[in-house]
Records
---
Amino acid sequence: TTRKVDVSASTSGKVIHLPVREGDMVEAGQLLFRIDPTPTQTLVAQIQASIRSAKANITVAEANQRQAKIEYERQKALLERNVVAEDVVQRAKSAYEVGIARTNATKEEIGRLEAQLGNARHDLTKVNVHADISGIVTKLNIHEGENAFVGTFNNPGTVLMTVSNLNQMEAWVEVDETDVVSLRVGQAAVVIVDAYPDTVFHG
């Protein structure tokens, strides 16, 4: 064929809807199959809950950091008046620095979770697979209820179906060696295919 598209899954999961069959004509943009979105929807909800928890933790961490700073400043003032030993001030300073580190770590955790949430939401957009071109489903390797898997760098994903544009065909034919000398570029040809015995193709 002049053009064909091998269709694979962009996200793994069970195929829950397969409205096309082999031999069906499909239009560009038409739904080819749908993968169960439930696991990804659950993941999105879990990450959202983790983000809410992390935001609550950052409020606590920032409050503890402020309190540790107040204590550190108080101990420094007492040290200047020779009321406390220097090791007391160092402990207060360490507690303050730990508070800063915990606050920063919680902020980084929120950033990491938000990135995961973005990826999970993007995966949700991949559960509906549509045709890139108009054509005929010439190969179908998946059925409803079966699992589709995404390929990796070293292991490409399984071709679940092939959509081919059959408006133009390329035929490889054998020509007897005694007739080859009579051929020329652009010469008209008539092709008869066993699969279509009543149809003559002109080329």
---
Amino acid sequence: MFKKHDSFFVSPETFLQMKDAYLQIPTEEIGIANVYRSSDGVAHAISNSCAHRGMALHDEPIGQARLACRYHGWRYCNRGHVKPNRVVGRNVEIALPKVELSKYGGFVANEKIDKAELDAVVKLINCKVDINPIHFECMPHNSNWKWLVENVLEAYHLDFVHRKSFVEQGFEMTSDIVNERIGDSSTMFLPKKRFGRGFYKHGYVFPNLFLSNTSDFITFCSIVMSLSIDRTNLYWFLYPGKKMGSLPNEMQNDLALQAINFTRKVLAEDREMVEAQQRGSGAENQSRNLTKIEPRIEWFYESLQKKGIQ
């Protein structure tokens, strides 16, 4: 699990700007916390345990809902302060424990991240997440977070795992793939080989943010959130690409639905593989590799070792 001193991404800022939007993260200080954006624009990770009797305030890891307890009806504002009720009255100072988060380049993070690397990756991928997402979900994984990162950083598995998804859309593993390292982060460019022109640009911002641009029609954003040594949440968001807005509304709606279903399918295909890795190798990394690993994965582990992240 990421530690207090580690820098990691929490959420796109635009997601938290949506009404009552939240997602959950683990913290060393206050355990599981719900991340909300307050009216003054500050993002806080607020304890998920009700101040009254300790009831979990949210069971779902992501959604749009008020911060409230279903046991006795205690409600809280997006800064964690209790709202007036029959037990505490109106003049209250009760507030849930919270941790203030930071904002960098359109994202919320637990502390200062490398904005230069983030900006460079966003520019190369040529994507924006500065409007409300068209969809968001969380996909839990029974595996260590590093297996998820490894899986996304290499394209070698494309022809085998994604035969019924990426390959059917005209993307194949070829020598045309271009990888570029940007400090601890990296990018990949994959041209479409069949069914017309197109591309898939993928960016990784260390340690847990992924961005991709599919032919300028759909932008994908995901954040890997380590819960424990063998449990990880994958939060993912879809945004309209710059070409999507030029389509008629009916076509935009159809494309959005296709993108949602396609993303669910691809992520489910990947989850099966990374959970099998967890069963085969546990939480270890690289110990079972008998051949030289792909460059982006090698860069990833170099950065982990340099920063002392477990």
---
Amino acid sequence: MKKYLSKLPDPIKIFIRKYPLRLLSILYSIPFIPLILIIFLIRSKILIRTGILYSDRIGHFAGNTELYLCELKAGINKPDSKFIDLFFLSGKISNQQLYKMWKRKLIILPNFLLFPIYDLTYFLPNGHKNRVSGPSCADRDVHNLLDKYPANLKFTKKEEQLGETILKSYGIEKNDKFICLNVRDSAFLSNKNYNYHSYRDCSISNYKYAAEKLADLGFFVIRMGAKVNEKLLSNNDKIIDYACDGKRSDFMDIFLGSRCYFSISTSTGWENIPYIFRKPIVFAPVQPANNFFTFSKKFIAIFKHHIIEEENRKMTITEIFESDVFKSQTSNEFKEFGVRLDEPTKEEIWEVTKEMLFNLKNNFKQNNNKTFYQKKIIENYTKYGNSNKIYHGEIKSMIGSKFIEQNF
């Protein structure tokens, strides 16, 4: 190999040494060149586009894909001419049930067939036309479409029956209401190099108070999670630690998210399951603050407390918005700002949960005369939330009323 490399021009030798996988990709794509030329030649009559489904993370597998379909319905990122969209997966399938359901809606083909075609579109004139361009901002509904269009996914009758049978095994009948409790801890993504997201971890014990209160009101509470460190310990039969009972499955992860009355979540990918099924969500907390899904009236949030360690004091919500810490995305960034993140108290979690119950009872009819604090939140997200690319559309979601008043 060295003998042949020595005869090549220096730029090619450098490329081979620096990008061996890219070279293999180019070589593998060569047999597909005739096909890509045909795709190019028929583009004026029928546009064939290829796109990637981000299957390795359940949040993007759910949210990005749902918004792609919603944007097509709204005429956003939709070609003017006749088109066919073909998809391949980004890698590992994070949830087999979700994959099965997307296959009913989309044309998903093996990577070895589509990736070379996708790769070769970069060499076509205006090749971007042959790649799926949506959605506009990953899993963020910047066009406020979720409240306008129904969910794109449906279960088969057989799947509905299976889900109801499993719910009955927990003592949950058809008319019973249950809340999904989704709290990420240090076990989340522990097998990957995602320690920079550790600032989003919380302790499940801090949510027991709200779970007990909900159970006292007659609701079932189902603790979600594929991998967790702590158990949710309770003597109440209505509180179910599904994450630790050995019955967890890819199917029920989706079914529960589609059927819950609402969900309490702490900024993890699974919350995009109730999200795509148009279920209300309490983000308790959402972190970082700028990541809040502000585009639906069905969402309400509180933040972690930002403690300036040098001064040993809590930042106000106004200070958070006005500082760069508002958009911090890694544990190191918070450390560099000298900010420690403390979890909301059990009382704060219960207060925002009570507010969701009130909103559901009143069908999310928000008072036109929004409080001074809520108006300020809308102004702040509009002013500080968007950067070069739109990150927030119309601000419809709320921050917990008591939380704002006590921390503004």
